[in-house]
Amino acid sequence: MIDLYYWTTPNGHKITIFLEETGLPYTIVPVNISQGDQFGESFLRISPNNRIPAIVDRQPDDGGEPVSVFESGAILLYLADKTGQFIPADLRGRVQVLEWLMWQMGGLGPMLGQNHHFKTYAPEKLPYAIDRYVNETARLYGILNEQLEGKDYICGDYSIADMACYPWVVPHERQGQNIDEFPEIKRWMQAMEARPAVQRAYARAKEINTETTVNEKSRAVLFGQGRRR
Ligand SMILES: N[C@@H](CCC(=O)N[C@@H](CS)C(=O)NCC(=O)O)C(=O)O
Q1: What is the pLDDT of residues 81-100, one digit of tens each?
Q2: Which domain, by its residues, includes 17?
Q3: Kind and range of the H or E element at 134?
Q4: Residue 127 located in a structural domain
Q5: CATH number of the domain where residue 77 is located
């Protein structure tokens, strides 16, 4: 049984997609990041960076004490290794999936996060910052579009790389991107959307939270953070 510490954001969706795909039993522990639940002491013990998602695996393969994992890329890799699914066993295939997983973690996620911040949430609209992240988003979309040429999924077969990237590309309109300029991404998104597990993952999100995560009340919680101690 996996406890999933979760909120309804792109990094949260990555893990519900994986869990729905594999059918691993899991319980959602909602961490409402709009209200500051991410600063609770018990959550910080498993996720010291005060960010969702995190998991606790109560039945780790070594038979020992529960294992906790934070950072969505580390969680996807842990679960892929645990189940032997969605990461190739052969050296070359595995390396490719790791490359695209890390590309998402180090590039696509952080840059698109800044795009959301400056384009949508920042109280002051700073043209330099908006252009910087909208352009970087376009660059990254171009790279992904190229990688998808001639393949059904990012690394050929469906993998944790797709689960990591997809939720970040869903809000393409508000990232200032015209998806018609990226036909391979458009086709891949349709394939992702058609997967019953992806549909179930997004349906779970709607059951847990019907509001947008960033609103007037949550601004200070999410964007007013400095050093904790
Ligand atoms: N690199 C982290 C990023 C996680 C992250 O930024 N999570 C956001 C939601 S998508 C969060 O928990 N924010 C709470 C906060 O900013 O305090 C990962 O991939 O797990």
Answers
A1: 999 999 999 999 999 999 99
A2: 2-85+200-223
A3: helix 127-148
A4: yes
A5: 3.40.30.10
Provide the domain count of the chain.
2
Sheet of strand 2-6, all strands in order from the earlier edge strand to the far edge: 26-30, 2-6, 54-57, 67-70
Please choose from 51, 71, 116 the residue to mutate so as to test ligand 1's pocket, defined by most ligand atoms within 8 A of CB: 51
What angle do the packed helices 183-193 and 196-208 form, to 10 degrees? 70
Pocket of ligand 1 (CB under 6 A): 9-11, 33, 38, 50-53, 71-73, 105, 109, 222
**Ligand 1, atom 8: nearest CA belongs to which residue?**
51
Q: Are residues 186 and 205 in the same domain?
A: no
**From ligand 1's centre to the CA of 41, what distance in Å?**
17
- 124-158 residue pLDDT tens: 999 999 999 999 999 999 999 999 999 999 999 99
Indicate if 97 and 185 belong to the same structural domain: yes
| Ligand 1 pocket test target in 6, 8, 11, 50 with most atoms within 8 Å of CB | 11
H/E run at residue 56: strand 54-57
Length of the chain: 229
Q: What is the pLDDT of residues 117-127, one digit of tens each?
A: 999 999 999 99
* 178-221 pLDDT tens trace: 999 999 999 999 999 999 999 999 999 999 998 888 888 899 89
Q: Model pTM greater than 0.85?
A: yes
Element of type H or E holding 30: strand 26-30
